[in-house]
Amino acid sequence: MAIKIRKEDALNYHTQGSPGKIEVIPSKPLSSQMDLALAYSPGVAEPCKEIEANVENVYKYTAKGNLVAVISNGTAVLGLGNIGPEASKPVMEGKGVLFKKFAGIDVFDIEINENDPKKLIDIIKSLEPTFGGVNLEDIKAPECFEIEQTLKKEMKIPVMHDDQHGTAIISGAALLNALELVEKDITEIKLVVNGAGASAVSCTRFYMSLGVKRENVVMCDKEGVIRSDRDNLDSIKAEFSTDRDIHTLSDAMSGADVFLGLSAGNVVSQDQIKLMAPNPIVFALANPDPEIAYDLAIAAREDVIMATGRSDHPNQVNNVLGFPYIFRGALDVRSTAINEDMKLAAAKAIAKLAKEPVPDIVTKAYGEANLGFGRMYLIPKPLDPRLITTIAPAVAKAAIDSGVARKSITDWEAYELELQERIGIDQRLMSVVIARAKKDPKRVVFAEADNRKILKAAQIIRDEKIAQPILLGNKEKILALIQENSLDLEHVTIIDPLEETEKLDQFTKVLYDKRKRKGMTLTDASRLVTQRNYFGAMMVEVGLADAFISGLTRDYPKTILPSLHTIGVKPEAKRVAGMYIMNTDKGPYFFADTTVNLNPSVEELVDIIGLTAEAVKFFNVQPRVAMLSYSNFGSAQGDIPVKMAKATALAKERYPDLIIEGEMQANVAINDEIQKEIYPFSQLINRRANTLIFPDLASGNIAYKLLSELGNAEAIGPILLGMNKPVHILQLGSSIREIVNMVAIAVVDAQTAQS
C-alpha cells in the first residue's frame, strides 16, 4: 500500500532553518517507513519542486548554506611544494577539522588531479550547486591568482584562496597594532617584502589597502630586489618592481620600518636587522623555520617587534584566527563573495580584540598570567573563545554594507548567541583546559592502575605532556597489563603501597592525628592507609603528588570517603558538591549536585549554588542559575517546590550579582519561548539557563545519565567542588577520553591551588 504524506510534513523534514536565523539541526529519525518516505521517495519530491520553483530554496531545504569545499590540486602544499593531490589530502582533511571545530562549518575536502588553470576553473565552477562557499588551498603561484579571480567573478558564492588572504588578514591585524605601539603612520612606513609567492603578493596588496604607499614598498625574491630592468618579469612581479638604485636585501633593509618574510628559513641576518629604522617590525613568517630565528632577532635589537608563524614564540600569525570565522560570517548572510571590505573588517576586528582584556580562560590556557596588548601580544590567541563572536559579525556586517549579502541580520545579540550554539562553547572548554595543563604538567596519582583504561589514559597524558602519572597497585600486575596492551610506560612511576613501609608509617600518623577524635584508632589508621584510595589521597595531602584520580571501578561514596578523611574540605567551604559539564550541541550545561548531597536542605542548596557558580566562572562562562523542580513559580504544592523556592530567595540575598531564577521546571528553564509567553518576569529570558541546580541527588544523577545516553551529550565529570586539594572521582566505567579530560581538569585545579 502506498504511503500518503502531507506536503507540509515533507517540507518540514527537509527544512534547515528559518530565514534570518541559524539553527543547529538534529539528525533526522529513520526509524519507520514513514521516516524513509519523508527522507527520500516520495517525500523528497516536495523540497525538490520548491527548489525548482525558486533556486534560493536550496538554502532552506538542504545543507548547502553550511557547507564549504576545501579544494586543492596539491601544487603548493605547506612547505612541501608540488606533491600532488593525493599527498595533499591530509592537509585538506585537517583544514576541514578546523572549520568544524572553530566555526561549526561542514566541509568536503576535494583534491583535483588537474594543473591546467582553465580546466581547474571549469571543474570548480561545476561544483557551485553543492556548496555554500569554496576555500582554495595550496595551489601554486602565479596560477592561483588567475584561478581565484576568475572564480570570484563567475561564481555566486564566497570564494577565497586562504594561502593568499588568510596570512594577509592576520598579519595585517598584527601590523596595525604594532604600528600603534611604535606610533608610526602606516602611510609613511617603508616596507620590505622577502618572497614573491601567493602569500607575499597578497599580503603586500592587503597592506596597501590598509594604507601602505606603493612607492614605499620593496619586494625581493631569491635573486634580490625585484627591479623593473630585470629580464622576463611576469605581470605579478612587475607590479612590485622598482627603479631605485637598490639591488640586495641588505640594500632594501637599510632604514626600513617593516620586514615581511614569506620566503625561506634563515635568510636574514642580525646585521640586516640592525640596518632597519628604530623600533623595527619584523614578521618572519616562513615555516617551519622563520627568515631569522626569534632569539637572534631579539638579540640583535632590543627595540624590535617580532612575529613568526610558530606557536612557541609570541605573536604567532596563524591562519586559524581568520578563515573559519570569515567563512562563518559570509555564509550566515549568504554572501555572493568575500570582498575587500570583508577582509578589512576581519583584520580590524582581530586587531581590536587584541586590545581588550584577555579572559582568564585564555591566560590559563597559555600559562601567561600577564597576557595583554603590547609588543608580545599583537593579536589574539587561537584558543580565544571570543574570536567567533568578534570576527564573524564584523564580516557579516561588511558583507551587508557592501551589498554582497543576500540575507540580512537585524538582531546582532541573538546572532552572537547563535554563533556560540553553532560550535558550542563546550567544544572549546576542554581544548583550553588541556592546553593549560600542558603548560605545567603536575603529578597525578591513579588509585586504579591495574586497569587497562587507566593505563591507556596514563600513556596519553604522558605522551601529550598533560600530566606526570603515578600508578598505584601491584607492580607485577601493572607491568603485565602494560605488556599485554602493548603500551609504552617506561619511566612512569609505579608504587605498590604494601611495599612502602616508610610512607605507610608516615601516612598512619597523619591520618590518626586527623581522625583520632572522630572515632579512628591507630590500628584503624594503619590498616586504612594500605588501601590505595587512602594511600593516593595521602600522597596529595603530604605533597608527594599534586592531584588524585580514582573511582573508575568503585562506587562514588566508597571512593570519596578516603579523600574526605585525609584531605578534607576547604576551610572556607562548609561542604563538598559534585558537578557535571554536559557538552551538548547547544553549548555547555552545568549540573549540580549530581554525586554527593543526597537530599540537601535549603541552606545546603545555597552553599551548592555558590560552589557551582565559582566552578562555572573558572571555565569563563557566566553562570545563569535555574533552581529546578516539578513546579513553576509555585504552580504546584509539595516539599520540593517549597524547598527550591526558599533556596532561590536566600541565594539571591547571598549572591546578589548572580542571575538566579526559580523554582521552575527543567524545560522552562532552557526555553525562552515558554518563559516569554507564560512567565515574562523571568530573569532568564534571552539568557537561557546554563547552570541547573537539582533538588536532590537522585534527580540530578538521573538527569545527567539520561542526557548522556539519549541526548547525544558528552558528560565531563564529576568535578568535585569544595575539596582542600585537587581530588576528582571518575564516573564508574568512564571512557579513556573522559579519564583524560578529568586528569586535565585536575592538573589545572592543582596549578590554580599552587599559584
UniProtKB/TrEMBL annotation:
Keywords, in A-Z order: Multifunctional enzyme, Oxidoreductase
Domain Malic enzyme N-terminal: start-end pairs: 19-152
Family matches, as InterPro entries: Aminoacid_DH-like_N_sf, Malate_Decarboxylase, Malic_N_dom, Malic_N_dom_sf, Malic_NAD-bd, Malic_NAD-bd_bact_type, ME_PTA, NAD(P)-bd_dom_sf
Domain of life: Bacteria
Pfam families associated with the record: malic, Malic_M, PTA_PTB
SMART domains: malic, Malic_M
Domain Malic enzyme NAD-binding positions: 164-400
Keyword Hydrolase: no
Family affiliation: In the N-terminal section; belongs to the malic enzymes family.
Protein name: NADP-dependent malic enzyme
